[in-house]
C-alpha cells in the first residue's frame, strides 16, 4: 500500500512540470517569431524610407560666371527628406567643370536609424573677363645698365587667374638712353586677354618729383564742407612724426584714424608711433579708429594680421572701425593672387575682427573700389578720392578728400577726412 501511494504522489508531482515545459516551448516560439519579425519590420521600414529619399535640382549642368554668389540651398527644386550640402555655396572662384554633393536623410525610431542617399549637382564656371591693366608703364624709367623686366614697370591682374601670362613686342636696350615703345599683352588661363601700348624710358638717373600741390588748412576744409551730419578728422602714421593731439583737437578735429602697423612677408610690424598716438588721441578726447596697411596675399595671413591688431588693443573698445588697407596695385602681379583672392582677404580680416567684437571697414581709392573691390554697396567703405567733390556712386562712411592738409599740432601734410552719420 505504501508503495502505491508513493507512485501516485510521484505521478501527481510530475504534471505541473509538463505544463511548464509546454509554456516554455510556446514562449521560445514567440521569441523566435519576434526575433524574425522585428528585424524584418525594421528592415522594411528602413528600406521604404531609403527608397523614398529624393532630390531634384532647378537646373543641373548650369553655367555660372566667375565670382557668382550662388547658395547651395537655392539650387534645390524639391526634396523628400532632410537635405544638407557639402558646401554652403558654389565654388566660382576658378573656372572649370565642378560638382557639389548633397546628402538627403530621414530619421527613424527617434533617430536610432537614419537612412540617407547621396546626390550630385553638376555645374561649370566660365571666365569671360579679360585681365585688367593697373599701370600701363608709361613714364617708367629704367636706369642705364640695369636689367629690364616688364613685370617691374607695368601693373596688371585678373579676376580669377592669380598668374596671368604677360608678353610684349618691342625691345628695351638698357645700355642706351632713350624712349622705347612696347606693345604689351596679358592673357589669363581662360584665354581672355587685354593689351596696350606703352613707352619705357632708359636714363642715367631717375628724375626727381617736385610736389607743388596747394596745401589746405584744416579750418578751411571744415568751412568748405561743413553741414549737418558731418564730422571732420585726420588719419596719421609715423610719417607725421610727433603729434600734439591737444592742438589737433583745438583746431576742430573730431576723430583720428591711426596706422596700427603694416604686414609684410608674413610678419606684422607696429607703426613706430602707434602706442604714443593712441594714448595721446585718447587723452585729448578724440574718437579713435585704426587701420592696418597690408601686403598679405593669403587668407591665413590676413587673419593673423587681424589677430595681431586685436592683441594690440588688449580688449580696449574703439569709436570707429578698423580699416583694411591694401593698395599695392602697381605691383599686383607679384602677389600671385587674383582679384577674387584679394576680396577674400578682406573677408577673412573682417571676420576675425568681428569675432572679437570690432567693426571693420574697407579702405580704397575710387578707381579700385569701382574696378576691383566687390560688395562695396554693403561693405563699410572708407573712400579715398582727392577731389573737390566725389562722383563715387556706392555708399561710403568716410571720405578721405585730401592728402595735403595742414593742421595745428602736426608739422607737415596730413590726410583730411569727412565722416557721415
| Class based on secondary structure composition and strand pairing | alpha/beta
User: What share of residues are in beta strands?
Assistant: 25-35%
User: How much is the average pLDDT?
Assistant: 91
Give unreliable regions as ranges: none
Helical content band: 25-40%
Radius of gyration (CA) equals 36 Å
Report the end-to-end length measured between terminal Cα atoms.
120 Å
Characterize the biggest β-sheet: 8 strands, mixed, barrel
Instruction: List SSEs in N-to-C order.
Output: HEEEEEEEEEEEEEHEHEEHEHEHEHEEE
Quick structural overview:
With 421 residues, the protein is α/β, with parallel strands linked by helices. The protein has helices at residues 2-52, 218-225, 245-250, 274-284, 299-313, 339-355, 366-371, and strands spanning 54-57, 62-65, 76-80, 82-85, 96-105, 116-126, 132-135, 141-143, 155-157, 165-169, 178-187, 193-203, 216-217, 230-236, 255-264, 267-270, 287-294, 322-325, 360-365, 381-384, 398-406, 414-420.
Structure notes:
- The protein has about 425 residues and is α/β, with parallel strands linked by helices.
- The chain contains 7 helices and 22 strands.
- It has helices at about 1-50, 220-225, 245-250, 275-285, 300-315, 340-355, 365-370; strands at about 55, 60-65, 75-80, 80-85, 95-105, 115-125, 130-135, 140-145, 155, 165-170, 180-185, 195-205, 215, 230-235, 255-265, 265-270, 285-295, 320-325, 360-365, 380-385, 400-405, 415-420.
- The strands form 5 sheets. The chain has an 8-stranded mixed β-barrel, surrounded by 4 helices. Strands 2-6-5-4 form a 4-stranded mixed β-sheet, with no helix packed on it. It has a 4-stranded mixed β-sheet with strand order 8-12-11-10, with no helix packed on it.
- Strand 21 and strand 22 form a beta hairpin.
- The mean pLDDT is about 90.
